[in-house]
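If you are new to this repository, start here. Below is one unmodified record pulled from the training split, so you can see the exact layout before writing a loader.
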Amino acid sequence: MERFYNAAARVVDDALESLAATTAVRVAEPESGLRILIREDWDRTRQGHDSVAVLSGGGAGHEPAHAGFIGDGMLTGAISGSLFASPSVEAVLAAIREVCGDAGCLLVVKNYTGDRLNFGLAAERARAEGLDVAMVIVADDIAIADAPQPRGIAGTVLVHKLAGFLAARGDPLAEIQGRAEALAGRLVSLGMALRPAAQPGQPAPARAPELGLGIHNETGTREVAPESADDAMNEVLTPLREALSARGSDAPWIAMLNDLGGCSTQEMGVLAASLLRQLGPASVSHLIGPAPLMTSLDMHGFSVTLVPADDTLVEALAAPTTAPGWCGLKAVSPAVTFTPDTHREHEALSESAPQDPAVAALLRAAITTLRDARDELDALDAKSGDGDAGASMQSGADAVAAALDTERLDTRTPAPLFAGIGQLLARDMGGSSGVLLSILFTATGADLAQGSDLPDALVEGVVKLQAYGGAKPGDRTLLDALVPAVEALARGETLASAAEAARAGADATAELTRAHAGRSAYVPESALEGVIDPGAEAVARVLEALTAAAR
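And here is the target side for that same chain:
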């Protein structure tokens, strides 16, 4: 199983079933065999007396088009065929009969042969029944130069929105048709895909990246090889701008960025930034998307639609609608920036900081120990984590060593000493261990600054470490060595006693086969048997080194 489908023949019906259950639509009885969805509140004799009904549709596989655009201010209803196949004449005619009142009905049709024929014949039969029906054909695809019948693709959605807006305010059918046709004639769209779509039950065709694909998985007009999102966007925007220039359509334009079905949110964000950057603030006034608007199943690609902006079109596209698939219109303007406040009221690191050689010697003993233990700590971590505990500890030690070498770390006064180490670890050690140890040193330094002695301040630092880190002794972390050592110091015991307590705590982690915090929590119990936690081992070694250096 590669995709979340049931039976291939049920894909369209399953998708429409969920939409009908969660949106304000009514649907044709399944027994009819027709896939028609109509606004739940629409009555052809009531709303249809004063307002034009707007219908669209076509083959499925383009979701949210077209059923996702049903709502007040957009489509009155939609008719769906099978995947990439036009609905039947009978389905279109039944939909017209359901919605068309005295004000008439407008059909918005993509310029594909099946859609033109089936919607066109349904319109003729409806007129023969006395219904006032008009049709607009959208042909916005510029992929094929001088094509006698350009395809209708994503730009169709903008025609839905304009027609629905005009219908909601009560404009007559002939005027809505004329303005919708004028918009259709100003639209230009073009798509690109890295991979084509895969139809349910079929493998995805193997094709190179292409420019100018149709939404029915047709091959593109030419193969391309973009090396970046900027390259891809340039490939699409260049022909679009040339087409607009040939028509004498000047900026500013409204741009629509459409996900063809398989792009991630991050990709679409990058493409949107590229589009705005390449068009420039003077050329694009508004953006629609990035969003899936007219997809092609799971095609890994995008399309761009450009249309010259005018006040009426902006008003129509910005008007509210209850259609769930419409993502809205956003005005484009230069980003508003601010300067983050990163200054420190009490900077712990400073040039020519006061120095105490004895304290500096203790710190260098700890630094040497962590550097020498890197490989062993990494090896322990490889058995219970991701194998970088030693490297992380060394990076923290190196940062402290550099501050000692440049005399930026105050080794004479305990409060700025601990606060400075906390700043260094947060900045240079990286990973969760760097943040956790930074919390310990920062909180200890803050308590020292309030007048506490070192053992009590360390107790407060450990309390904060547990509160933010979420671990406790017995969870197989560095706390298993750190807490016993700090408790020994708080009881007034010697540094040597604290080191012994840390060693005992670290060694005991080899018997803890169930971790409740850190990466070890995701490792099978069998992998932890007899393995000392690397963080606890590092704490024990540092305290042993400090004890030896203090003698």
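Two things worth knowing about this chain: Residues 519-524 have pLDDT under 50 and may be disordered. The chain has two domains: 8-197+207-331, 357-550.
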